[in-house]
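Input (structure):
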């Protein structure tokens, strides 16, 4: 697999289970569950995923960590 632990993909296009989020921050608590906001690289974009499945996409051409072309 090409790429680093933040951007690598399986040959079939799936995200590996051991891949890490760029950012994962606890933003609160609902009842007894923690709520997190995360930034992940998916193919050629960074996705911000927050509570209630909120998602914002930012298109990118290169991994911000290793510089690999996506």
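Output (sequence):
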């Amino acid at each position: 697999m090409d790429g680093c632990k933040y951007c690598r993909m399986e040959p079939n296009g799936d995200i590996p289970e051991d891949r890490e989020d760029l950012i994962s921050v606890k933003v609160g608590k609902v009842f007894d569950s923690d709520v997190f906001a995360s930034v992940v690289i998916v193919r050629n974009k960074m996705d911000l995923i927050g509570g209630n499945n909120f998602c914002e996409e930012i298109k990118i051409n290169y991994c911000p960590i290793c510089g690999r072309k996506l």
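Notes: The two ends are 13 Å apart (CA to CA). The chain has a mean pLDDT of 89.
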